[in-house]
Amino acid sequence: MKIAVLGTGVVGQTLAEKLATLGHDVTMGTRDVANALATMGNGSYGQPAFGEWHKNHANIKVATFADAAAFGEFVINATNGMGTLNALEHAGHDNLKNKILLDVSNPLDFTHGMPPSLWVSNTDSLGEQIQRAFPDTKVVKSLHTMNAYLMVNSSIVPGNHTVFLSGNDVEAKLKMRGLLITFGWKDENIFDLGDITTARGTEQILPLWVRIMGTLQHPFFNFSIVVGRPPAA
Amino acid sequence: MKIAVLGTGVVGQTLAEKLATLGHDVTMGTRDVANALATMGNGSYGQPAFGEWHKNHANIKVATFADAAAFGEFVINATNGMGTLNALEHAGHDNLKNKILLDVSNPLDFTHGMPPSLWVSNTDSLGEQIQRAFPDTKVVKSLHTMNAYLMVNSSIVPGNHTVFLSGNDVEAKLKMRGLLITFGWKDENIFDLGDITTARGTEQILPLWVRIMGTLQHPFFNFSIVVGRPPAA
User: Fold this and answer.
1) Distance between CA A176 and CA A178 in Å, rounded?
2) B31 forms bridges with which residues in the sheet?
3) Which of residues 34-63 of A touch B (CB under 8 A)?
4) Under an 8 A CB cutoff, do B205 and A210 touch?
5) Given this model, what pLDDT does residue A233 score?
6) Could you read off the pLDDT of B118-130 as tens digits, one per residue?
7) Under 8 Å CB-to-CB from A30, ≥6 apart: which residues?
8) Contact at 8 Å (CB) between B191 and B54?
9) pLDDT tens digits for A6-39?
């Protein structure tokens, strides 16, 4: 499948590499291609900066947001949540029309210091904002409740644990479920919560995620929804 | 131990009954004792109304918020989140001074319809509001991320799953941990997140809890934090 990954940070890199390994034709989208490819040394999380990383991933094409979105049959938003709506405007309404847009971003707000708060929450979500701004695009929110490495390597956390799915389009969520299974997720651990408004719930667990990471001192954990039975009456 | 349970709804009933079964001396606190005992028939969640319930739980005393708080060495806030701060004012600062206050309430806001939103979230929490209003009280936030029946019957959800703990006072959290163990929780499943500001994270998962309950059509599930290992370098 022709897949566009918008965003060249660690999340975009991790997803693009996995998708290419699975045989997809991947183009990464960025604001300024020359600038992105010129970044060397280490990125903000200690991973190689994009230019450095791309030297070893030359099979992955790099293009503007618009050219990448035009290329992809399936588009992934892996940009920083703060810049997501702007990045998607650059990607362009026509280039996103009728396509599935997987949104893995979070509306994390670091302007009040650490730990981050959310700049949209409670009665709205970033997933919903994207869906409202791009009504002809099939927005699916998923994979945003975990570390990037875990997204594509679910077995680094043992046993059963959960990846959530929100979106208005049932077919789009089925396609997304299929992609998650190729990433190594078990079907029974993919939890479809319903329409895109349910992204409020999952985006709002990010502050807890951040606190758990602070306690564990590493990000290699996940939420699991464990279901029991009603007690005997 | 002498324990006050403030609030006579299903959460208060469930906790009071379990505590009495464990041999604690329990007094429930309410706004108007005569009114509370006069409620008959079914309560709002289909459980017996408080007066009906109390007929079969006569070993549990009922008093005003103030008298119950004065009685308790350990106080549990199981009032409706919307009325919690007011109920605690009625309980009285002197009656709560230097005591542990377990807060199991949630700031759910039903005024915008279903599913509920939160009337405090993101950069603050109800747990923090209580701690600020009662600075001489040791507020511990716990058990609020699950159904009342599950709080005291953790085994109805199979395997490992998590109960969170937030609070500024380390001794108070140790006492709370001890109480949780008598409720049937395994020590390894009690996740101490840190100070009371971490209640932001746990209160904010309530909207997701509500959506999951909507999908499952029952409340007998729990969150589990499943921890893996960092990938080999």
Assistant:
1) 5
2) none
3) none
4) no
5) 62
6) 999 999 999 999 9
7) A6, A7, A8, A36, A50, A62, A63, A64, A65, A68
8) no
9) 999 999 999 999 999 999 999 999 999 999 999 9
| Interstrand relation of B108-109 and A100-103 (parallel, antiparallel or unpaired) | unpaired
User: Which residue(s) pair with A11 in the sheet?
Assistant: none
Question: What is the ipTM metric for this complex?
Answer: 0.94
**What stretches of chain A adopt beta strand conformation (E)?**
2-6, 25-30, 61-64, 74-77, 100-103, 108-109, 117-118, 138-142, 163-167, 190-194, 221-227
Ranking A196-210, B38-52, B109-123, B137-151 by mean pLDDT, the lowest is: B38-52
- What residues of chain B, 85 to 124, have a C-beta less than 8 Å from chain A? 112, 117-118, 121-123
Contact indicator for B26, B5 with CB cutoff of 8 Å = yes
Residue B210 tokens, joined: 């509500």
C-alpha B102/C-alpha B142 separation (Å) is 7
Is domain B2-216 given the CATH code 3.40.50.720 in the classification? yes
Contact criterion met (CB < 8 Å) for B122 and A123:
no
pTM to 2 decimal places: 0.95
